[in-house]
Amino acid sequence: MKPPTRPEFDLIARIRQRASHGRGDVVLGIGDDAAVLAVPAGRQLVVAMDTLNAGVHFPGDTAPGDIGWKSLAVNLSDLAAMGAEPAWCTLSLSLPSADPAWVDAFLEGFLDLARLHDVALVGGDTTRGPLSVCVAAHGWVEPGTALRRDGARPGDLVWVTGTLGDAAGALAQWRDGGGVDARLRARLDRPVPRIAVGRALPPVASACIDVSDGLLADLGHVCAASGVGAEILLDALPCPEVLRECFDAAARRRLQATGGDDYELCFTTRGTLRDAVAAIAADTGVDIACIGRIVAGREVEAFDAEGRPWRPDRPGHEHFTTQE
Ligand code: ADP
Ligand code: MG
Question: Cys-Cys link to 55, which of 83, 116, 281, 323 (CB 3.0-4.6 A)?
């Protein structure tokens, strides 16, 4: 009798074959019931998990390689926001059909990013269902040094890496149904986790978060956890040239303050640490802008160049409401 074919196992064999890595701390990777990993002595394990659903977390026309990249990037961004050094990841794939070409293309983006940060894919799960990708990323910190949301104090400065609004700009163009600028689309599809900055921040930052739901919403989480408020200068938000080319000032402001999907780090430091932040920017080659300060209170308030308060219609990013 011919054995029944199990396409799930063919896919897992494919993944296993491609997920080679050089890490000595993976005692047992893909292929057994679970992975066995050697956590370095004297470190705390840091674990993050995020799911991307088709039509909710990425447009339905997103290339499989970009879905692969982004599903790992958003998790590495969470580790960066904790100040952690990434080491391992697991991958749960729900696929409408066992399509080896799709999996190969997906893995190309996923493993390109994994190799950039020396992250080993050590296990996962493969099931049939609507397209959904769930990744867990694991890393570590020196004990007690993880960057948290609850350490901001009045008088602290608020900083953000890179630029804001690019990814949300791509999404806005995509929703309008016209052309999407390729530079903006690249920021939506292939966010760059700020691992090096995150690793350098523990001695300097009092609180940190990665910007996934929009600056005002995410800074609001820091303020709520820390029991403080914040004042943000809209004109200080780092704006890429392409956003100026594609959107008027009002739209730009909304995208930058509330858009989301940026995966930049927003952090706070004591007011005396400007030079230390400048040194991290120089060492990592990542621009870091001071965008405001922490104040007493509970509100996150944004001000324009004339000092007038500005309120968005909604503070943060909403997931897609339509299925693509
Ligand atoms: P079990 O039934 O014991 O959970 P599976 O057949 O689901 O085993 O998985 C077999 C091996 O393949 C395990 O080591 C698992 O971690 C790995 N694996 C399954 N799916 C994936 C995936 N999408 N990515 C990486 N590893 C996977
Ligand atoms: Mg399983």
Answer: 323
